[in-house]
Fold this protein.
Amino acid sequence: MTEERGERAGRPDLAEHRDLAGRPDLAGQRDLAGHPDQLRWDARYAGAAPSFRPHPLAEQALGPDLPGGPPPAGPVADLASGPSGSALLAAALGRQVTAVDVSAVALDLLGQEARRRGLAGRITLVHADLASWHPDPAGYSLVLCTGFWDPAVFAVAARAVAPGGVLGWEAFTEAARRTRPTLNPAWCLGAGEPGRLLPGGFTVLTQQDQPDPGHGERRRLLARRPH
């Protein structure tokens, strides 16, 4: 997942839920057919074989060395997941995972790999535009999002973290535009973001900039919600 997903703004009220038992029944539902973000990302994911490597942020968040220990027992939400190795990692550790993405191709790839690894029962795929997806407040012990930035989605994600749980985020910084001048500034983190946008009470565990030659600088955040 090396490409930015910051352009995944979208229309409200578009969401389609699917699980790994098979393709969803679309009767009576609004799907994302024709949505420009789905078309763009379907085309991109269809043209490359996914590695299914977990994101380093997920490895850190779920590892034993996280300050204060790993997130408490409970489900994980992987936002703008793509064909996510992070979702597979969390599921392999025994977590129930909700993977949300606008790309049906990405979710199908993830579903196929989950079935191959015997993890289908632990992963729920949600085909949705993040602007319209509303997770349960305090419903997830870990909420993870990498390669995407929208302050409104960030606020919703923070509210979805359970007490004692962890929020992990990575997005481009403004400095990335020096490498990629056409990058939309709305998709880039401003000074101190995303940490300075956390609700009161969250503790920043780490917030560090990561060079990414050829793609642009990114910033990673891990923060814990108080019990």
Summary: The chain has one domain: 52-224. The beta strands are 15-19, 76-79, 97-101, 123-128, 140-146, 161-172, 203-210, 218-224.
